[in-house]
């Protein structure tokens, strides 16, 4: 019944617009195009960078940045020049934890841009315990509890948890949703309402201490599966970008019936341009969970 009423309301609104329609031409000034840098990098891999150009609000084709020169600095020392390959730029050197990485990006006929970030030291998961079927939510989903233990380092730290599951019998993947999370470490971020695909949090509640965080999730698993836990120590820029990205992606699903949200600007640490250049390190664990 509700979809019918929504459709009827939309028809009435559109019909009323037709009776008082007036074409207004707006001459918008051309937007200044800037370099857009996108790169998430980690230890043991080359630094991989995607370059593009920003576009105006009425444009729909994102132009490539060709013939760019990207200089890599490690701890403020010029070390490498990235090479292009199949739409990306790669460093010859492999990234390492604990070092500061900077890029100077030159694109012909455009202003140069600068960016820098670090790869935090890896935080090791000391223990991972999954308890299946701890509760059933109002939609009938069976909720599992995952408890992660680790030692936090003194000073501000930022974390991300990503879960994936594949069946043991055929290695096919099954979906995972974060549901009914109530641990203050997770809820204090204020991001759960955005239905994030990963969970991010800080160490404000346990700085420099041992931490046990509980994460609740649901799957559609019908058989035993391997649960892969990717536990990332991320930079502050990485965290701030993801924080805004969750809100932005959630806003794309709004319509005139659910309420249009205010415009959301993504976080950027690119000086003179847009985008993100952020480092992270990862620890991974795989545990077997009953899906029956």
Report the CATH C-level class of the largest domain.
Mainly Beta
Structural class: mainly beta
Count of domain modules: 2
Mean of all residue-level pLDDT scores: 87
Give the topology string: H per helix, E per strand: HEEEEEEEEEEEEEHEEEHE
CA-based shape: globular
Largest sheet: 9 strands, mixed
Low-confidence stretches: 1-5
**How much of the polypeptide forms β-strand, as a percent range?**
35-45%
Helix content: 10-25%
List the keywords:
2 domains; nine-stranded mixed β-sheet; Immunoglobulin-like; disordered N terminus; mainly beta; four-stranded antiparallel β-sheet; 292 residues; 3 helices
Your description of this structure?
It is a single chain. The protein has 3 helices and 17 strands. The chain has 292 residues and is mainly beta. It has 2 domains: 84 residues, Sandwich (Immunoglobulin-like), CATH 2.60.40; 158 residues, Immunoglobulin-like (Sandwich). Strands 1, 2, 5, 6, 11, 12, 14, 16 and 17 form a 9-stranded mixed sheet that branches. It has a 4-stranded antiparallel sheet with strand order 4-3-7-8, with no helix packed on it. The two termini are 35 Å apart. 25% of the residues are buried. The N terminus is likely disordered.
Could you provide a short overview of the structure?
The chain is mainly beta and 292 residues long. The protein has helices at 2-19, 184-187, 236-251; strands at 35-42, 46-53, 69-74, 77-81, 83-85, 88-94, 100-106, 113-118, 125-136, 142-151, 158-167, 173-174, 176-178, 199-202, 210-219, 225-234, 274-289. The chain is built from 3 helices and 17 strands.
């Amino acid at each position: 019944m509700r979809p019918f009423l929504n459709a009827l309301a939309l028809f009435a609104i559109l019909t009323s617009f037709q009776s008082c329609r007036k074409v207004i031409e707006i001459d918008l000034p051309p937007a200044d195009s800037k370099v857009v840098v996108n790169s998430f990098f980690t230890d043991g891999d080359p630094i991989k960078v995607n370059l593009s150009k920003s576009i105006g609000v009425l444009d729909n084709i994102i132009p490539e940045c060709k013939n760019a020169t990207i200089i890599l600095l490690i701890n403020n020392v010029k070390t490498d020049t990235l090479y292009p390959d199949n739409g990306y730029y790669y460093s010859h050197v492999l990234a390492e934890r604990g070092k500061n990485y900077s890029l100077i990006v030159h694109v012909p006929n455009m202003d140069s841009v600068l960016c820098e970030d670090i790869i935090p030291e890896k935080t090791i998961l000391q223990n991972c315990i999954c308890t299946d079927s701890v509760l059933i939510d109002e939609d009938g989903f069976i909720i599992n509890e995952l408890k992660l233990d680790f030692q936090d380092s003194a000073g501000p730290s930022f974390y991300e948890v990503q879960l994936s599951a594949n069946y043991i019998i055929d290695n096919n993947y099954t979906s995972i949703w974060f549901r009914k999370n109530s641990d203050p470490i997770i809820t204090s971020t204020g991001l759960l309402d955005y239905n994030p695909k990963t969970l991010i949090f800080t160490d404000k509640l346990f700085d420099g201490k041992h931490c046990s965080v509980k994460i609740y999730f649901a799957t559609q698993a019908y058989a035993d599966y391997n649960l892969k836990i990717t536990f990332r120590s991320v930079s502050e820029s990485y965290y701030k970008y993801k924080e805004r990205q969750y809100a932005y992606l959630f806003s794309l699903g709004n319509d005139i019936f659910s309420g249009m949200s205010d415009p959301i600007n993504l976080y950027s640490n690119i000086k003179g341009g847009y985008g993100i250049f952020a480092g992270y390190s990862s620890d991974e664990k795989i545990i077997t969970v009953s899906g029956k």
